[in-house]
Amino acid sequence: MKIAIVGCGAVGGWLAWQLARRGEDVTVIERKKRLGGKACSGLVSERIWDFLPKNEKLVENTIEEVAIHFPRKTAIARFKPRMLAFDRPAFDNYIAKLAAEAGAELRLGSNFETLREERDGVVVTSDRGEERFDRVVGCDGAVSRVRAVCTSEQPRYRAGIQCFQQVKETGAIADVWPTPGGFFWRIPKGNQLEWGLFERQENGWKMWKAFTAEHGLGKLPIQAAVIPEGVIVTGSKNVALCGDAAGLTKPWSGGGILWGITSAKMLLESWPRFDKYESRMRRHFSSKIAIGRFGAKAVTFMGSRAAWLMPVQMSFDSDWLL
Fold first, then answer.
1. Mean residue pLDDT across the chain
2. Is residue 268 a part of any domain in this protein?
3. Is position 322 within any domain?
4. Domain limits at 224?
5. Which pLDDT value is given to residue 315?
6. Which residues make Cβ contacts (< 8 Å) with residue 296, sequence separation at least 6?
7. What's the CATH code of the domain at 146?
8. Cis peptide before 272 (omega within 30 of 0)
9. Cβ partners under 8 Å of residue 14, min gap 6
10. What integer is the mean pLDDT of 173-187?
């Protein structure tokens, strides 16, 4: 089969790698000339090595605990498994290299424009003109162009804002400050501290400015992006969505790498039945998003309004709804 994958982040690169290993003719269309997530902490559990050849050189730090700072109490949560803080551009490039070595064609700096479904395949228009493919998979992120062409359905969005402070910090504890619609975070990454906010869009900038002023971070350059949440399908036999393009991020953290790769794995297992994939993906993630939304609200309410119910120390699965 001749396959086009739009987007070469972690999910698109992983899917291209796996399909190329199967002997498929894979073309990856990526608008960026340099790979790397924007406003993404690159914090992923050790389960990532279940999907990829282990490469410790990508890991900037290993996070074992998180201190959750509620207004009247700080709780320490221990991760099981541990969380790995990746150099995100290096991580995405590592996966893209696996795809290229397996035989996928990577077109960095190439713009996908639109697609047209026909009886015998899909015609993709990019800056290289029109090309015909048997299947197309949109892995092109939160504001997916493939999704916009195929469906009017949109995910719920929250804001992700991030900055980096150049200071040597090698601790194994991250810090989180819950907010009404998300949280602030602080992650040590060896030679720098990563600060960020995951919050509803209407509140994000105002809260970010107040927080960074309080911590003396106001002059640091920032990155910002929208973070999607939902389960979106195309209903097409020839075009599917994976990862952020399908809205697949965890409601309690905004993380999407493992969920995205899990969706890509489901697509591979259903291949070439895109209808089967979409049905399975919707069933798998819809309940997890609903439970995750409730759980995040419950923890925030308990820590803010009923702190006496919150244990000082606890342990939890960092992928509890994988």
1. 91
2. yes
3. no
4. 2-37+46-317
5. 75
6. 251, 252
7. 3.50.50.60
8. yes
9. 51, 52, 95, 99, 261, 264
10. 92
